[in-house]
Amino acid sequence: MKKEKEYTVGTYLAKRLQDIGLKHHFAVAGDYNLMLLDQLLANKEMDQVYCTNELNCGFSAEGYARANGAAAAVVTFSVGALSAFDAIGGAYAENLPVILIVGAPNSNDYGTDHLLHHTLGTHDFSYQLEMAKHITCAAVSITSAEEAPSLIDHAIRTALREKKPAYIEIACNVAGLPCAAPGPASAVLSEIPSDKETLDKAVETAVAFLASKEKPVLLIGSKLRAAGAEKEAIQLAEALGCSVAVMAAAKSFFPEEHPQFVGVYWGEVSAPGAQEIVDWSDSIICLAPLFNDYSTVGWTAMPEGPNVMIADQKNVRMAGHDFSDLHLRDFLSALARKVEKKPATMVEFERIKYKREAVKEAAPDTKLMRSELFRQIQKMITPETTVFAETGDSWFGGVALHLPDGARFEVEMQWGHIGWSIPSVFGYAVSASNQRRIISLTGDGSFQLTAQEVAQMIRRKLPVIIFLINNRGYTIEVEIHDGPYNNIKNWDYAGLIKVFNAEDGKGLGFKAQTAGELALAVKKALANQEGPTLIECVIDRDDCTAELISWGRLVAKANGRPPSVR
Ligand code: DPX
Ligand code: MG
Question: What is the pTM of this model?
Answer without folding.
Answer: 0.97
